[in-house]
Amino acid sequence: QNLTWWQGQVIRVRARGVYTCGGTATNATFALYAATVGTALSGGTSLATTGALALPPSVTGFWWRLQAEIQCRAIAQGSATASLYTQGELLIQTATAATTVGNVQVWPLPAVSGPTAANADTTIARTLGLVATLSQVTGSPTITCTQITHEIVSG
Q1: What span, in angstroms and rounded, lies between the C-alpha atoms of 72 and 85?
Q2: If exposure means fewest CB atoms within 10 Å of the residue's CB, which of 11, 26, 78, 89 is most exposed?
Q3: Selection from 24, 120, 23, 16 nearest residue 68 by Cα
Q4: pLDDT > 80? residue 1
Q5: How far is CA 26 from CA 45, 56, 70, 73, 80, in A?
Q6: How far is CA 59 from the centre of its chain?
Q7: More confident residue, 56 or 113
Q8: What's the rounded Cα separation, in Å, for the pair 118 and 83?
C-alpha cells in the first residue's frame, strides 16, 4: 500500500500467515520496510526487525501473527532525521497444540527494547511491507503471508 505521511500519524500493520519447516534447523527473521514506490521492499528503509527465530523442525502449517505500530514523528526530506518510530510483536506457533500458552512464542519487534527510530524521507509516498527471511533452504522451508493490513489509527 502506498502511503503519504504527516506528523503524528500512526499506522498499525497486522499480518498473519503460516510456515513449514523440514528436518533441518532453520532460523527465520521478520522485518518491516518502507520503500520508495516501485522499488523492492528489501531495498527500502528497515523500520523494525525481529531477532533470528529458531523454527521447530519437521512442522507443516504452523501459524504466525505480527502486529506493529509505525508513528511518524517528523516530516523530513532525505534520510538524515529519525522520522518513523516502529514497535510491535510477533507471535509464532512452536508446537502442535496451539491453544496452549507454552506452545506460542512472543518475539519483540524490533529485537531490542523500545521502538526503532528509522531515518526515512517522509515527504514522498512509501510502500509498506513485510519481508521474512529464512537462514537456509534444505528441506524446502517456507513462510507465507496470507493477510496483511495497514490501518491509520491516529493523526
Answers
A1: 7
A2: 78
A3: 16
A4: no
A5: 25, 8, 29, 36, 36
A6: 22
A7: 56
A8: 6
For the chain, give the DSSP string: -EE---TT-EEEEEEEEEEEE-SS-EEEEEEEEEEETTS-GGGSEEEEE---EEEPSSEEEEEEEEEEEEEE----SSSSSEEEEEEEEEEEE-SS-TTSGGGEEEEEESSSSS-EEEE--TTS-EEEEEEEEES--TT--EEEEEEEEEEEEE-
Alpha carbons 148 and 59: distance in angstroms, whole number: 23
pLDDT tens per residue, range 63-105: 999 999 999 998 888 767 889 999 999 999 998 875 666 789 9
Q: Which of 53, 134, 122, 35 is nearest to 93 (CA)?
A: 53
CA–CA gap between residue 51 and residue 42 (Å, rounded): 16
